[in-house]
Automatic annotation (TrEMBL):
Keywords: DNA-binding, Transcription, Transcription regulation. This is CRP-like cAMP-binding protein. Residues 130-198 form the HTH crp-type domain. GO terms for molecular function: DNA binding; DNA-binding transcription factor activity. It comes from Flavobacterium cauense R2A-7. The lineage of its organism: Bacteria, Pseudomonadati, Bacteroidota, Flavobacteriia, Flavobacteriales. Residues 15-116 form the Cyclic nucleotide-binding domain.
Length: 198
């Protein structure tokens, strides 16, 4: 999103995290802008039973955790490294200086936040009322658009695990597995080497 050169010129630091590391916790006050260089990060909550609900999964060149940074409110979710990853970390004052000096960066951030808000609105409607197969297709189709997944010979490969699909749609893993099999029978998706293609 923000170029490496621009981040480094504004004193962003590179920081490495190991799979499972907590980058920030729900309830903490935000002090930094985070952008992924390599690896994946998820934002998630846990209910009283310890069940995880994933708010979003973020990949290289994406940022996460900005709304509370702008609002000066506590983080509503945890950010956890899904894999070993490297991030740009920029202090809040330097981040605000960067966007105040760069109108194009400000517009890119607004567009990114609008896309995420749109996703949340679409998925909230799907989760509240639709069948599992429909929820999964919406998640898959939105992932293709949002992550700009390139089409391969067999279609668009979805790299989400069954567990991640369950956590993103509010379904149980067993339900996701059954729904994926049903979607494959209906020729809505293909399963090749356990990967989902649309």
């Amino acid at each position: 999103m923000i170029t490496e050169e621009l981040l480094e010129s504004h004193q962003a630091l590179r920081k490495k995290y190991t799979k499972g590391d907590i980058i920030f916790r729900e309830g903490e006050l935000p002090n930094h802008y985070f952008q992924i260089i390599s690896g994946e990060v998820k934002m998630c909550n846990f209910n009283d039973d310890g069940r995880e609900f994933i708010q979003g999964i973020f990949s290289p060149k994406q940022s996460f955790g900005e709304p509370p940074l702008f609002l000066n409110r506590l983080y509503p979710a945890n950010a956890i490294a899904v894999s070993d990853c490297e991030l740009f970390v920029l202090s809040k004052p330097l981040f605000l200086k960067l966007i105040n000096e760069n109108a194009l960066v400000s517009m890119a951030i607004i567009e990114n936040l609008a896309q995420r808000l749109h996703y949340k609105s679409v998925m909230a409607a799907e989760i509240s009322s639709q069948e599992p197969e429909h929820r999964l297709l919406k998640l898959i189709d939105y992932s293709i658009r949002f992550f700009k997944i390139e089409k391969e010979k067999e279609g668009h490969r979805i790299d989400l695990t069954r567990q991640q699909m369950a956590d993103l749609t509010g379904l149980r893993v067993e339900t996701v597995i059954r729904a994926i099999k049903a979607l494959e029978k209906k020729n809505e998706i293909k399963i090749i080497n356990r990967k989902v293609f649309r």
